[in-house]
Protein backbone atom coordinates (compact mmCIF):
# COMPACT_ATOMS: atom_id res chain seq x y z
CA UNK A 1 0.00 0.00 0.00
CA UNK A 2 2.99 2.31 0.51
CA UNK A 3 3.60 2.27 -3.24
CA UNK A 4 -0.05 3.23 -3.88
CA UNK A 5 -1.02 5.21 -0.74
CA UNK A 6 -4.28 6.48 -2.24
CA UNK A 7 -5.45 3.28 -3.93
CA UNK A 8 -8.57 2.91 -1.77
CA UNK A 9 -9.78 6.48 -2.49
CA UNK A 10 -8.98 6.18 -6.19
CA UNK A 11 -10.69 2.78 -6.46
CA UNK A 12 -13.90 4.10 -4.89
CA UNK A 13 -13.81 7.25 -7.05
CA UNK A 14 -13.30 5.18 -10.21
CA UNK A 15 -16.52 3.24 -9.55
CA UNK A 16 -18.46 6.48 -9.07
CA UNK A 17 -17.06 7.95 -12.29
CA UNK A 18 -17.84 4.72 -14.16
CA UNK A 19 -21.46 4.84 -13.03
CA UNK A 20 -21.72 8.50 -14.07
CA UNK A 21 -19.99 7.92 -17.41
CA UNK A 22 -21.87 4.81 -18.52
CA UNK A 23 -25.27 6.36 -19.34
CA UNK A 24 -23.64 9.52 -20.72
CA UNK A 25 -21.35 7.57 -23.08
CA UNK A 26 -24.34 5.69 -24.47
CA UNK A 27 -26.60 8.74 -24.58
CA UNK A 28 -24.08 10.95 -26.38
CA UNK A 29 -23.46 8.22 -28.97
CA UNK A 30 -27.16 7.70 -29.70
CA UNK A 31 -27.78 11.45 -29.91
CA UNK A 32 -24.81 11.79 -32.26
CA UNK A 33 -26.35 9.29 -34.68
CA UNK A 34 -23.71 6.57 -34.21
CA UNK A 35 -23.83 3.08 -32.62
CA UNK A 36 -24.07 3.18 -28.82
CA UNK A 37 -20.92 1.07 -28.49
CA UNK A 38 -18.79 3.84 -30.03
CA UNK A 39 -19.55 6.04 -27.04
CA UNK A 40 -18.18 3.32 -24.78
CA UNK A 41 -15.06 3.01 -26.98
CA UNK A 42 -14.34 6.72 -26.57
CA UNK A 43 -14.91 6.47 -22.82
CA UNK A 44 -12.51 3.50 -22.63
CA UNK A 45 -9.82 5.35 -24.59
CA UNK A 46 -10.39 8.44 -22.43
CA UNK A 47 -9.67 6.33 -19.35
CA UNK A 48 -6.92 3.97 -20.46
CA UNK A 49 -5.00 6.30 -22.79
CA UNK A 50 -5.68 9.95 -21.96
CA UNK A 51 -6.16 9.07 -18.30
CA UNK A 52 -2.68 7.57 -18.14
CA UNK A 53 -0.90 10.54 -19.77
CA UNK A 54 0.39 13.65 -17.95
CA UNK A 55 -1.45 16.97 -18.08
CA UNK A 56 -4.30 17.16 -15.61
CA UNK A 57 -4.31 14.56 -12.85
CA UNK A 58 -8.00 14.47 -11.89
CA UNK A 59 -10.11 15.50 -14.88
CA UNK A 60 -11.80 12.69 -16.80
CA UNK A 61 -12.15 12.47 -20.58
CA UNK A 62 -14.76 10.83 -22.78
CA UNK A 63 -17.55 11.61 -25.27
CA UNK A 64 -19.07 14.98 -24.45
CA UNK A 65 -22.54 16.43 -24.88
CA UNK A 66 -20.82 19.60 -26.09
CA UNK A 67 -19.74 17.89 -29.32
CA UNK A 68 -22.99 16.02 -29.95
CA UNK A 69 -24.44 18.57 -32.35
CA UNK A 70 -21.20 18.88 -34.32
CA UNK A 71 -20.77 15.09 -34.60
CA UNK A 72 -24.38 14.61 -35.71
CA UNK A 73 -23.99 17.24 -38.43
CA UNK A 74 -20.70 15.70 -39.61
CA UNK A 75 -22.16 12.18 -39.77
CA UNK A 76 -25.20 13.44 -41.67
CA UNK A 77 -23.06 15.33 -44.18
CA UNK A 78 -20.09 13.02 -44.69
CA UNK A 79 -21.25 9.63 -43.38
CA UNK A 80 -20.12 7.48 -40.46
CA UNK A 81 -16.89 6.22 -42.13
CA UNK A 82 -15.67 9.84 -42.45
CA UNK A 83 -16.09 10.45 -38.70
CA UNK A 84 -12.93 8.47 -37.97
CA UNK A 85 -10.96 10.59 -40.45
CA UNK A 86 -12.23 13.84 -38.90
CA UNK A 87 -11.46 12.74 -35.33
CA UNK A 88 -8.05 11.34 -36.33
CA UNK A 89 -7.08 14.59 -38.06
CA UNK A 90 -8.32 16.66 -35.09
CA UNK A 91 -6.26 14.49 -32.74
CA UNK A 92 -3.12 14.97 -34.81
CA UNK A 93 -3.70 18.74 -34.86
CA UNK A 94 -4.03 18.73 -31.08
CA UNK A 95 -0.74 16.84 -30.79
CA UNK A 96 0.96 19.40 -33.03
CA UNK A 97 -0.51 22.34 -31.11
CA UNK A 98 0.58 20.80 -27.81
CA UNK A 99 4.10 20.20 -29.13
CA UNK A 100 4.23 23.85 -30.25
CA UNK A 101 3.13 24.86 -26.73
CA UNK A 102 -0.10 26.47 -27.91
CA UNK A 103 -2.20 24.94 -25.13
CA UNK A 104 -1.78 27.88 -22.78
CA UNK A 105 -3.05 30.26 -25.47
CA UNK A 106 -6.51 28.73 -25.26
CA UNK A 107 -6.79 30.53 -21.93
CA UNK A 108 -6.74 33.77 -23.93
CA UNK A 109 -10.08 32.91 -25.58
CA UNK A 110 -12.86 35.01 -24.13
CA UNK A 111 -14.84 33.09 -21.52
CA UNK A 112 -17.99 34.63 -23.00
CA UNK A 113 -17.26 33.01 -26.37
CA UNK A 114 -16.81 29.59 -24.76
CA UNK A 115 -19.93 29.95 -22.61
CA UNK A 116 -21.86 31.24 -25.62
CA UNK A 117 -20.66 28.23 -27.59
CA UNK A 118 -21.82 25.86 -24.86
CA UNK A 119 -25.13 27.72 -24.54
CA UNK A 120 -25.75 27.44 -28.29
CA UNK A 121 -24.89 23.74 -28.19
CA UNK A 122 -27.19 23.33 -25.20
CA UNK A 123 -30.12 24.98 -26.99
CA UNK A 124 -29.72 22.84 -30.12
CA UNK A 125 -29.20 19.71 -28.01
CA UNK A 126 -32.31 20.34 -25.93
CA UNK A 127 -34.44 21.09 -29.00
CA UNK A 128 -33.23 17.97 -30.83
CA UNK A 129 -33.67 15.66 -27.85
CA UNK A 130 -37.19 16.93 -27.13
CA UNK A 131 -38.17 15.29 -30.42
CA UNK A 132 -36.40 12.10 -29.32
CA UNK A 133 -38.26 12.01 -26.00
CA UNK A 134 -41.48 11.82 -28.03
CA UNK A 135 -40.04 9.29 -30.49
CA UNK A 136 -40.19 11.81 -33.34
CA UNK A 137 -37.58 12.63 -36.01
CA UNK A 138 -35.91 16.01 -35.50
CA UNK A 139 -35.28 18.49 -38.35
CA UNK A 140 -31.69 18.91 -39.51
CA UNK A 141 -30.80 22.52 -38.66
CA UNK A 142 -30.76 24.09 -35.22
CA UNK A 143 -33.23 26.84 -36.08
CA UNK A 144 -35.65 24.34 -37.66
CA UNK A 145 -35.47 22.18 -34.53
CA UNK A 146 -36.59 25.10 -32.37
CA UNK A 147 -39.20 26.47 -34.78
CA UNK A 148 -40.64 22.98 -35.31
CA UNK A 149 -41.30 22.28 -31.62
CA UNK A 150 -44.92 23.58 -31.59
CA UNK A 151 -45.80 21.33 -34.54
CA UNK A 152 -44.05 18.39 -32.88
CA UNK A 153 -46.09 18.98 -29.72
CA UNK A 154 -49.31 18.81 -31.76
CA UNK A 155 -48.17 15.59 -33.45
CA UNK A 156 -47.21 14.03 -30.11
CA UNK A 157 -50.57 14.95 -28.58
CA UNK A 158 -52.36 12.89 -31.23
CA UNK A 159 -50.31 9.73 -30.72
CA UNK A 160 -50.52 7.38 -27.72
CA UNK A 161 -47.05 5.96 -28.43
CA UNK A 162 -45.52 9.45 -28.63
CA UNK A 163 -47.21 10.52 -25.39
CA UNK A 164 -45.99 7.38 -23.63
CA UNK A 165 -42.45 8.02 -24.85
CA UNK A 166 -42.68 11.69 -23.82
CA UNK A 167 -43.89 10.81 -20.31
CA UNK A 168 -40.99 8.39 -19.86
CA UNK A 169 -38.48 11.03 -21.00
CA UNK A 170 -40.04 13.65 -18.71
CA UNK A 171 -39.97 11.20 -15.79
CA UNK A 172 -36.27 10.60 -16.44
CA UNK A 173 -35.59 14.34 -16.21
CA UNK A 174 -37.70 14.60 -13.05
CA UNK A 175 -35.73 11.79 -11.40
CA UNK A 176 -32.41 13.48 -12.23
CA UNK A 177 -33.58 16.86 -10.92
CA UNK A 178 -35.09 15.40 -7.75
CA UNK A 179 -32.22 13.00 -7.07
CA UNK A 180 -30.06 15.77 -5.62
CA UNK A 181 -32.65 16.42 -2.91
CA UNK A 182 -32.44 12.88 -1.56
CA UNK A 183 -30.15 11.85 1.34
CA UNK A 184 -26.44 11.76 0.62
CA UNK A 185 -26.34 8.00 1.08
CA UNK A 186 -28.87 7.54 -1.73
CA UNK A 187 -26.95 9.97 -3.94
CA UNK A 188 -24.03 7.53 -3.89
CA UNK A 189 -25.79 6.13 -6.97
CA UNK A 190 -25.52 8.81 -9.72
CA UNK A 191 -28.82 10.36 -10.71
CA UNK A 192 -28.43 9.57 -14.42
CA UNK A 193 -27.82 5.89 -13.73
CA UNK A 194 -30.75 5.72 -11.31
CA UNK A 195 -33.01 7.37 -13.90
CA UNK A 196 -31.98 4.86 -16.57
CA UNK A 197 -32.50 1.88 -14.25
CA UNK A 198 -35.95 3.12 -13.23
CA UNK A 199 -36.83 3.68 -16.91
CA UNK A 200 -35.75 0.11 -17.75
CA UNK A 201 -37.83 -1.27 -14.90
CA UNK A 202 -40.89 0.82 -15.84
CA UNK A 203 -40.63 -0.21 -19.49
CA UNK A 204 -40.43 -3.90 -18.57
CA UNK A 205 -43.15 -3.88 -15.88
CA UNK A 206 -45.71 -1.89 -17.86
CA UNK A 207 -44.63 -3.23 -21.26
CA UNK A 208 -44.32 0.31 -22.62
CA UNK A 209 -44.25 0.69 -26.43
CA UNK A 210 -41.02 2.69 -26.59
CA UNK A 211 -37.88 2.24 -28.68
CA UNK A 212 -34.73 0.91 -27.02
CA UNK A 213 -31.02 1.13 -27.86
CA UNK A 214 -29.98 -0.86 -30.91
CA UNK A 215 -27.03 -3.12 -30.11
CA UNK A 216 -24.53 -4.12 -32.80
CA UNK A 217 -21.73 -5.53 -30.68
CA UNK A 218 -18.48 -3.84 -29.72
CA UNK A 219 -16.25 -5.35 -32.41
CA UNK A 220 -18.86 -4.88 -35.15
CA UNK A 221 -19.21 -1.19 -34.24
CA UNK A 222 -15.50 -0.45 -34.46
CA UNK A 223 -14.77 0.39 -38.09
CA UNK A 224 -11.35 1.99 -38.67
CA UNK A 225 -11.49 4.43 -41.61
CA UNK A 226 -10.19 2.83 -44.80
CA UNK A 227 -8.74 4.47 -47.89
CA UNK A 228 -12.14 4.40 -49.60
CA UNK A 229 -13.48 6.75 -46.90
CA UNK A 230 -11.24 9.52 -48.26
CA UNK A 231 -12.74 9.30 -51.74
CA UNK A 232 -15.92 11.31 -51.31
CA UNK A 233 -14.48 13.99 -49.05
CA UNK A 234 -14.23 17.56 -50.28
CA UNK A 235 -12.47 20.72 -49.15
CA UNK A 236 -15.39 21.49 -46.82
CA UNK A 237 -14.28 18.81 -44.41
CA UNK A 238 -11.27 20.95 -43.46
CA UNK A 239 -13.57 23.43 -41.74
CA UNK A 240 -15.22 20.59 -39.84
CA UNK A 241 -11.82 19.26 -38.71
CA UNK A 242 -10.78 22.73 -37.51
CA UNK A 243 -14.10 23.10 -35.67
CA UNK A 244 -13.64 19.73 -33.95
CA UNK A 245 -10.07 20.67 -32.97
CA UNK A 246 -10.80 24.14 -31.60
CA UNK A 247 -14.00 23.26 -29.79
CA UNK A 248 -12.69 20.03 -28.25
CA UNK A 249 -9.45 21.75 -27.18
CA UNK A 250 -11.17 24.81 -25.73
CA UNK A 251 -13.73 22.71 -23.84
CA UNK A 252 -11.01 20.43 -22.44
CA UNK A 253 -8.71 23.22 -21.29
CA UNK A 254 -11.51 25.31 -19.82
CA UNK A 255 -12.68 22.19 -18.01
CA UNK A 256 -9.13 21.75 -16.69
CA UNK A 257 -9.18 25.28 -15.28
CA UNK A 258 -12.52 24.59 -13.59
CA UNK A 259 -11.34 21.27 -12.14
CA UNK A 260 -8.18 22.92 -10.77
CA UNK A 261 -10.44 25.14 -8.66
CA UNK A 262 -12.05 22.06 -7.10
CA UNK A 263 -8.93 20.49 -5.55
CA UNK A 264 -5.58 21.36 -3.99
CA UNK A 265 -3.51 18.83 -5.95
CA UNK A 266 -1.11 19.42 -8.87
CA UNK A 267 -2.18 22.11 -11.35
CA UNK A 268 -2.88 21.35 -14.99
CA UNK A 269 0.01 21.53 -17.46
CA UNK A 270 -1.95 22.88 -20.41
CA UNK A 271 0.40 21.91 -23.25
CA UNK A 272 0.75 18.34 -21.94
CA UNK A 273 -3.01 18.10 -21.41
CA UNK A 274 -3.60 19.21 -25.01
CA UNK A 275 -1.22 16.48 -26.20
CA UNK A 276 -2.99 13.91 -23.99
CA UNK A 277 -6.32 14.89 -25.57
CA UNK A 278 -4.70 14.71 -29.01
CA UNK A 279 -3.35 11.21 -28.34
CA UNK A 280 -6.79 10.06 -27.21
CA UNK A 281 -8.56 11.56 -30.22
CA UNK A 282 -5.99 10.11 -32.60
CA UNK A 283 -6.73 6.61 -31.28
CA UNK A 284 -10.49 7.27 -31.25
CA UNK A 285 -10.25 8.37 -34.88
CA UNK A 286 -8.25 5.26 -35.81
CA UNK A 287 -11.04 3.16 -34.26
CA UNK A 288 -13.81 5.15 -35.96
CA UNK A 289 -15.20 6.25 -32.58
CA UNK A 290 -16.56 9.53 -31.21
CA UNK A 291 -14.26 12.46 -30.41
CA UNK A 292 -13.38 13.06 -26.78
CA UNK A 293 -12.96 16.05 -24.53
CA UNK A 294 -12.43 16.47 -20.83
CA UNK A 295 -15.89 16.41 -19.27
CA UNK A 296 -16.67 18.59 -16.26
CA UNK A 297 -19.53 16.38 -14.99
CA UNK A 298 -17.33 13.28 -14.74
CA UNK A 299 -14.35 15.29 -13.53
CA UNK A 300 -16.25 16.97 -10.70
CA UNK A 301 -17.72 13.58 -9.72
CA UNK A 302 -14.17 12.22 -9.62
CA UNK A 303 -12.97 15.00 -7.31
CA UNK A 304 -16.08 14.84 -5.11
CA UNK A 305 -15.66 11.07 -4.70
CA UNK A 306 -12.21 11.62 -3.17
CA UNK A 307 -9.88 10.79 -6.06
CA UNK A 308 -6.26 11.65 -5.36
CA UNK A 309 -4.33 10.52 -8.44
CA UNK A 310 -4.85 9.67 -12.11
CA UNK A 311 -5.40 6.03 -11.12
CA UNK A 312 -9.13 6.74 -10.62
CA UNK A 313 -9.68 7.79 -14.22
CA UNK A 314 -7.61 4.92 -15.58
CA UNK A 315 -9.63 2.43 -13.50
CA UNK A 316 -12.90 3.95 -14.72
CA UNK A 317 -11.72 3.07 -18.25
CA UNK A 318 -11.09 -0.50 -17.08
CA UNK A 319 -14.66 -0.79 -15.73
CA UNK A 320 -16.08 0.57 -19.02
CA UNK A 321 -14.01 -1.99 -20.95
CA UNK A 322 -15.22 -4.86 -18.76
CA UNK A 323 -18.84 -3.71 -19.17
CA UNK A 324 -18.50 -3.44 -22.96
CA UNK A 325 -16.87 -6.88 -23.14
CA UNK A 326 -19.07 -8.79 -20.69
CA UNK A 327 -22.48 -7.07 -20.64
CA UNK A 328 -23.03 -5.42 -24.05
CA UNK A 329 -26.52 -6.87 -24.45
CA UNK A 330 -27.61 -4.86 -21.39
CA UNK A 331 -27.60 -1.76 -23.61
CA UNK A 332 -30.57 -3.14 -25.55
CA UNK A 333 -32.74 -2.72 -22.42
CA UNK A 334 -32.23 1.06 -22.24
CA UNK A 335 -35.23 3.07 -23.56
CA UNK A 336 -34.28 5.82 -25.99
CA UNK A 337 -36.61 8.39 -24.33
CA UNK A 338 -34.62 7.93 -21.10
CA UNK A 339 -31.34 8.70 -22.87
CA UNK A 340 -32.98 11.70 -24.54
CA UNK A 341 -34.12 12.91 -21.12
CA UNK A 342 -30.56 12.62 -19.79
CA UNK A 343 -29.27 14.74 -22.68
CA UNK A 344 -32.01 17.36 -22.27
CA UNK A 345 -30.83 17.67 -18.67
CA UNK A 346 -27.18 17.85 -19.84
CA UNK A 347 -28.06 20.49 -22.43
CA UNK A 348 -29.84 22.59 -19.81
CA UNK A 349 -26.70 22.56 -17.64
CA UNK A 350 -24.64 23.87 -20.59
CA UNK A 351 -26.62 27.14 -20.57
CA UNK A 352 -25.20 29.60 -17.98
CA UNK A 353 -28.51 31.00 -16.73
CA UNK A 354 -27.14 31.97 -13.31
CA UNK A 355 -24.29 34.00 -14.81
CA UNK A 356 -26.32 36.02 -17.31
CA UNK A 357 -27.84 38.66 -15.01
CA UNK A 358 -24.59 39.47 -13.11
CA UNK A 359 -22.70 39.50 -16.42
CA UNK A 360 -25.19 41.90 -17.97
CA UNK A 361 -24.94 44.24 -14.97
CA UNK A 362 -21.14 44.28 -14.85
CA UNK A 363 -19.97 43.58 -18.43
CA UNK A 364 -22.68 44.17 -21.00
CA UNK A 365 -20.28 43.75 -23.88
CA UNK A 366 -19.32 40.27 -22.69
CA UNK A 367 -22.98 39.36 -22.17
CA UNK A 368 -23.75 40.49 -25.72
CA UNK A 369 -20.91 38.33 -27.08
CA UNK A 370 -22.27 35.32 -25.19
CA UNK A 371 -25.80 35.80 -26.54
CA UNK A 372 -24.71 36.51 -30.13
CA UNK A 373 -22.42 33.45 -30.16
CA UNK A 374 -25.23 31.22 -28.88
CA UNK A 375 -27.80 32.61 -31.34
CA UNK A 376 -25.33 32.34 -34.25
CA UNK A 377 -24.71 28.67 -33.50
CA UNK A 378 -28.46 28.01 -33.46
CA UNK A 379 -29.18 30.09 -36.57
CA UNK A 380 -26.16 29.20 -38.72
CA UNK A 381 -23.92 26.35 -37.56
CA UNK A 382 -21.33 25.50 -34.95
CA UNK A 383 -18.14 26.56 -36.73
CA UNK A 384 -19.38 29.87 -38.11
CA UNK A 385 -21.13 30.68 -34.82
CA UNK A 386 -17.87 30.31 -32.90
CA UNK A 387 -16.02 32.41 -35.51
CA UNK A 388 -18.64 35.15 -35.14
CA UNK A 389 -18.17 35.07 -31.37
CA UNK A 390 -14.37 35.26 -31.68
CA UNK A 391 -14.62 38.13 -34.17
CA UNK A 392 -16.91 40.08 -31.82
CA UNK A 393 -14.52 39.45 -28.95
CA UNK A 394 -11.60 40.84 -30.97
CA UNK A 395 -13.62 43.90 -32.04
CA UNK A 396 -14.69 44.55 -28.44
CA UNK A 397 -11.11 44.28 -27.20
CA UNK A 398 -9.87 46.62 -29.92
CA UNK A 399 -12.63 49.11 -29.14
CA UNK A 400 -11.85 49.07 -25.42
CA UNK A 401 -8.12 49.36 -26.13
CA UNK A 402 -8.84 52.54 -28.08
CA UNK A 403 -10.59 54.25 -25.17
CA UNK A 404 -10.22 57.98 -25.69
CA UNK A 405 -11.28 61.10 -23.82
CA UNK A 406 -11.39 64.47 -25.54
CA UNK A 407 -11.88 67.76 -23.70
CA UNK A 408 -12.31 71.17 -25.37
CA UNK A 409 -11.74 74.32 -23.28
CA UNK A 410 -12.75 77.67 -24.79
CA UNK A 411 -12.44 80.68 -22.48
CA UNK A 412 -13.78 83.04 -25.13
CA UNK A 413 -10.44 84.68 -25.71
CA UNK A 414 -7.01 83.36 -26.57
CA UNK A 415 -6.34 79.93 -28.00
CA UNK A 416 -8.85 77.09 -27.78
CA UNK A 417 -7.37 74.22 -25.82
CA UNK A 418 -8.04 70.61 -26.91
CA UNK A 419 -6.88 67.81 -24.60
CA UNK A 420 -6.67 64.17 -25.71
CA UNK A 421 -6.04 61.35 -23.24
CA UNK A 422 -6.16 57.54 -23.47
CA UNK A 423 -5.47 55.59 -26.66
CA UNK A 424 -5.92 57.30 -30.02
CA UNK A 425 -6.40 54.65 -32.73
CA UNK A 426 -8.07 54.63 -36.12
CA UNK A 427 -11.26 53.32 -34.47
CA UNK A 428 -11.71 56.69 -32.70
CA UNK A 429 -10.53 58.82 -35.61
CA UNK A 430 -14.03 59.89 -36.81
CA UNK A 431 -14.89 61.17 -33.33
CA UNK A 432 -11.57 63.07 -33.02
CA UNK A 433 -11.87 64.75 -36.44
CA UNK A 434 -15.55 65.65 -35.95
CA UNK A 435 -14.67 67.48 -32.73
CA UNK A 436 -11.61 69.26 -34.13
CA UNK A 437 -13.26 70.28 -37.41
CA UNK A 438 -16.15 71.85 -35.49
CA UNK A 439 -13.74 74.37 -33.89
CA UNK A 440 -13.83 77.96 -35.21
CA UNK A 441 -11.44 78.42 -38.15
CA UNK A 442 -10.43 81.95 -37.10
CA UNK A 443 -9.16 81.00 -33.64
CA UNK A 444 -5.75 79.59 -32.67
CA UNK A 445 -5.77 76.07 -31.22
CA UNK A 446 -3.50 74.31 -28.76
CA UNK A 447 -3.67 70.53 -29.17
CA UNK A 448 -2.37 68.75 -26.06
CA UNK A 449 -1.48 65.08 -26.71
CA UNK A 450 0.54 64.58 -23.52
CA UNK A 451 -2.24 62.48 -21.96
CA UNK A 452 -2.15 59.84 -24.72
CA UNK A 453 -0.75 56.41 -23.95
CA UNK A 454 -0.78 55.46 -27.62
CA UNK A 455 -1.10 57.35 -30.89
CA UNK A 456 -1.18 55.18 -34.00
CA UNK A 457 0.07 56.19 -37.43
CA UNK A 458 -3.41 56.77 -38.88
CA UNK A 459 -4.32 59.20 -36.10
CA UNK A 460 -0.99 61.05 -36.24
CA UNK A 461 -1.28 61.55 -40.00
CA UNK A 462 -4.91 62.71 -39.70
CA UNK A 463 -4.05 65.20 -36.92
CA UNK A 464 -1.14 66.61 -38.94
CA UNK A 465 -3.40 67.06 -41.97
CA UNK A 466 -6.09 68.74 -39.86
CA UNK A 467 -3.51 71.10 -38.29
CA UNK A 468 -2.26 72.04 -41.76
CA UNK A 469 -5.80 72.77 -42.99
CA UNK A 470 -6.68 74.78 -39.88
CA UNK A 471 -3.55 76.92 -40.24
CA UNK A 472 -3.93 77.43 -43.99
CA UNK A 473 -6.57 80.17 -43.58
CA UNK A 474 -4.04 82.55 -42.05
CA UNK A 475 -4.80 81.53 -38.48
CA UNK A 476 -1.92 81.14 -36.05
CA UNK A 477 -0.42 77.63 -36.54
CA UNK A 478 -1.81 74.89 -34.32
CA UNK A 479 0.46 74.34 -31.33
CA UNK A 480 0.88 70.63 -30.53
CA UNK A 481 2.11 69.35 -27.16
CA UNK A 482 3.12 65.68 -27.08
CA UNK A 483 4.42 63.20 -24.53
CA UNK A 484 8.14 63.04 -23.87
CA UNK A 485 8.42 59.67 -25.64
CA UNK A 486 6.71 61.01 -28.73
CA UNK A 487 8.93 64.10 -28.73
CA UNK A 488 12.03 61.93 -28.39
CA UNK A 489 10.87 59.79 -31.31
CA UNK A 490 10.35 62.85 -33.47
CA UNK A 491 13.76 64.18 -32.46
CA UNK A 492 15.35 60.89 -33.47
CA UNK A 493 13.66 61.11 -36.87
CA UNK A 494 15.01 64.66 -37.38
CA UNK A 495 18.51 63.58 -36.29
CA UNK A 496 18.42 60.60 -38.65
CA UNK A 497 17.37 62.87 -41.50
For the biggest β-sheet, the strand order reads 3-4-5-6
Order of helices and strands: HHEHHHHHHHHHHEHHHHHHEEHEHEH
Could you give a short account of the major beta sheet?
A: 4 strands, mixed
Strand content: 5-15%
What is the arithmetic mean of pLDDT? Answer: 86
Helix content: 55-70%
- Detail the poorly predicted runs: 485-497
Number of helices: 21
Structural class: alpha/beta
How many strand segments?
Answer: 6
Q: From the alpha-carbon coordinates, what is the Rg to the nearest angstrom?
A: 29 Å
Number of domains: 2
Distance between the termini: 77 Å
Q: Estimate the global geometry from the Cα principal axes.
A: elongated
SSE map:
Blueprint: H1 7-31, H2 36-48, E1 60-62, H3 68-78, H4 80-99, H5 111-133, H6 142-147, H7 149-157, H8 160-179, H9 191-206, H10 218-221, H11 236-260, H12 270-286, E2 293-295, H13 296-304, H14 311-326, H15 336-350, H16 353-362, H17 364-379, H18 382-401, E3 404-409, E4 416-424, H19 429-437, E5 445-455, H20 457-471, E6 479-481, H21 484-496
Parallel strand pairs: 4-5, 5-6
Antiparallel strand pairs: 1-2, 3-4
Helix pairs in contact: 1-2, 1-9, 1-13, 1-14, 1-15, 2-12, 2-14, 3-4, 4-11, 4-12, 5-15, 5-17, 5-18, 8-9, 8-15, 11-12, 11-13, 16-17, 17-18, 19-20
Keywords: Membrane, Transmembrane, Transmembrane helix
Protein name: Sulfate transporter
Main location: membrane
